[in-house]
Amino acid sequence: MAKDVENITIRIAEIMINELKLEDVTPETFDPEIDLVDEVGIDSMDLATVALVVQDEYGIRIDEDDYQKLTTIRFIAEYVQERM
Amino acid sequence: MKTVSSLLDEEWHKRYKSISKLNIRSSIYDVTNRCNLRCKGCFFFSSDEDKAAKEEMDLQKWEVFIDREKERGVNLAILIGGEPTICLDRVEAFYSRLPTFCATNGLIKVPRDRFPHLMVGISLWGDEEDEKLLRGKDTFPISSRNYEGDSHAYYLYTITPKQIGKTERIVNRIRDVGLKIHMQLLSNDEGVEEFFWTHEELKDIRAEMDDMLDKYPDVVISSNYYHEVITTGKMFDRQFGWGECPSVTEPIDRRDPRPKHLMGFIRWASDLKTMHRCCTSETRDCSTCKDGAAHMSWVMVNKRAHIRSEQDLKNWIEVYEMFAKLYQFIPW
Ligand code: SF4
Ligand code: SF4
């Protein structure tokens, strides 16, 4: 279970880096606790882009109303894991 | 990876924190199709937007509509027109439900006993000569009498190419009546002869706007970066225009790819059903559009792009602060 979240965390980081073309960071160095909105400048449009790929890949639905809770990669990974 | 904390010192980080969670969601409302002036080049009348929709006259329908807007997540109502103060009941319907900003020509005074904190932006198109030529009369003596010393009002000074070298006088006139000022530029294509920005003039006016902000920081609500972006139409290597504009009505925006934009933004016509294309007129040429709010919003919605150096992020913060001050989300 813990390993699942770890794997999902790395994969979400990778999706985020690829989709948003983030520089100077790898899935391994992406701090899963960092506040994506406040610190990285991710907005709801960015989240929607990432959510599309995540939904497809994990076969889940991410409700737009939940975006405000998805403020770190860790939170996104846990959210995905709960719905898988 | 560059992050906000890695780029800012404590003081700037505090400033950032005071705006980063504001989450402003604005929409624009044509309160009425009527106006007590007929300015040359007013985008509303020159593009026949006054005829695009039949004004809703039933106040109750406005109230229901505004409640729906609030439910939709709008937390800033920007009232334009026509002249909103002709219909104070409608203005009140917004004001009693939502943070509200009212654009006006200042000829009718918003009664402060009824609207104590309503933020009012008074339009001014230049000096006496320009005002007479463009609007048929110099509105400043009347609007300044109506709003002298009002802490919830400021002048929205639309600079025309004829104002180069003259802006300081206007800033002083406004300062002398105890009001603040925000500067914007007349767009090239507003159908007014001889009011056309050349490249050189835009360079000159940028320097002048910077100068005014430098000299009168307590009066002028602006930022150097905003001056740069609005006069050059550039943000980094990107060019402002249709492909980049953030102020397009979201439900009818068919652009692909869709650029960063104001979430949930709609400009509503006064029938409460029709949606206009964007925050200004549909007939305007996007490649020469100088709309101030659209340029400000362009910077604001592109936060991540500015988290790349200390100066870029500070520029972003200053533009966001300017917007937040103009719409009363943070104090002057
Ligand atoms: S006062 Fe405003 S709405 Fe009225 S004609 Fe002039 S620019 Fe247009
Ligand atoms: S006219 Fe200006 S505000 Fe309207 S869509 Fe074009 S660039 Fe944007």
TrEMBL record, chain B:
Q: Which SUPFAM superfamilies match?
A: Radical SAM enzymes
Q: Which keywords describe this protein according to UniProt?
A: Iron, Iron-sulfur, Metal-binding, S-adenosyl-L-methionine
Q: Name one GO molecular function term.
A: iron-sulfur cluster binding
Question: Please, which domain of life does this record's source organism belong to?
Answer: Bacteria
> What is the name of this protein?
Radical SAM protein
